[in-house]
């Protein structure tokens, strides 16, 4: 969407349960079947979305299936290293050609029904019993697999099913530049898991658009401060296109001691194994024996981590420690991608509908980090789908969030509850997402 289009007032009166302002969200947007079907028609088939990470398809002929609602797309690494994406249906009688992920044997996609084959670039390579068909059924362009548009950015493959969609970079601007500044191109998968939640995809992701919930939901992160935990130290930003971010106010967070930093970092390492990792804790432990001038803790932390990375051969984007996101924060890329960076690492979420049901979602979680350039990393694989209460696979922090999300969805159906009421100061990103969604749903 261009800047001119963004400034233009959009008539959203045709959208059911439309946002009447930025303070209230009608509850039906989270469960109404008609609203969900409109999202299928005008959002998911027209927007850019992250289909996979490049580490999922590192070698030629690797493939992965991306599913969204009732659509299935195959993302395939080409011989020259480029990437193509195909609608997952045989051109003969619609059979899905592949499921999950893997590698194309002999570089061929093979229909399991009648054995028709396609090259990795989508061109037809074999039709069993071709002499039994009329020529008009076997025209090469008709047999070629139908493609989605593909762009690669930030270590990810992005696809859109809309041939008329604008360029990816313009679609993600300006929020994407914040991630570029802190080294998104260097992040790789440490682990990747998923959970199925009984909640609408929007309800699930709204939990991560604000830090307002930390005091009550994550009391361990509030360091025992309870209601005295400060909520005005975070700056919330909303952007055109439905994107948003939040970060510590000012250019540097006000760390006052190494011990305090280590304590909060250890809570993240133990509670999520993401953002702050044990590697960082080990590096920062060395600061306990150093004299650090008052007010210089953050600067010293950044310099220490940078020197360690340089010595270990870990890529370091020049100047990334000057970004407030280096010390923590969040960037949301509409419609459903989150990045929560810290110290050259990142916690990332992708949330999408599940089983074509408006009240269920598939919630994927990545722990990303930056590895030495000489380290040979394995192909990124989903470790598994784990129950929301599985203590062996989910730390305390995500378990706390998962529980609240499902309780919200149930609460929507309570008699007497009509709509969400949003804080302009803490929850503007939620309304910003909904306003953008209405613009998409109102489009012809």
From TrEMBL:
The keyword Cell division is annotated on this UniProt entry: no
Metal-binding in keyword set: yes
Residue ranges of every copy of the Rieske domain listed in the record: 48-159
Keywords, in A-Z order: 2Fe-2S, Dioxygenase, Iron, Iron-sulfur, Metal-binding, Oxidoreductase
Protein name, UniProt field: Aromatic ring-hydroxylating dioxygenase subunit alpha
GO molecular function ontology, one term from the record: dioxygenase activity
Cofactors required: Fe cation
PROSITE patterns: RIESKE
Species of the source: Amycolatopsis acididurans
Residue ranges that the Swiss-Prot or TrEMBL entry lists as coiled coil: none
Xref: Pfam families: Rieske, Ring_hydroxyl_A
